[in-house]
Structure formats: C-alpha cells, structure tokens
Design a protein that fits this description.
The protein has two helices and no strands. It is an all-alpha fold. The chain has a domain of 41 residues. It is elongated, with a radius of gyration of 18 Å.
Length: 65
C-alpha cells in the first residue's frame, strides 16, 4: 500500500478525531500536499546518520556561519 492510499484513511480519521470538518476541496488540497511532501519525508526518515558526528557548541540562537 503506498503513501497516498494510507493518507486517504488516516487524514480524515485524524481530522474527525480533532473535531475538524473538511470540504471536498480542502481534502483534495490536503491530498495534494501529502503527495508532494510525504515521499521526501520518508527519505529523510530512512537516512542513516549514525556515522555523522554531532556539532558541539551549537548556538541555535545564531545564524549558521
């Protein structure tokens, strides 16, 4: 089962659980966004970063140098 098929099940259920009603147009927009962003999200989740050393002394309040 690919991601768009799964989205058809969990997105409406999630919205209903939160008490959010969505029109057909809104659901179509949500589906489109899901189709665009979900594959790269899955790629990021599968990325092996075990050999990358974490940066030390990172100040997230400053812009990267």
């Amino acid at each position: 089962m690919d991601a768009p098929e799964r989205a058809e099940g969990f997105v409406p259920a999630g919205l209903t659980a939160l008490g959010i009603e969505a029109s057909e147009e809104e659901m179509a927009a949500i589906e489109g966004v899901h189709r665009v962003f979900w594959p790269p999200i899955l790629e990021l989740l599968a990325l092996d970063t075990s050999e990358v050393e974490p940066e030390s002394g990172t100040d997230f309040g400053q812009a990267p140098k």
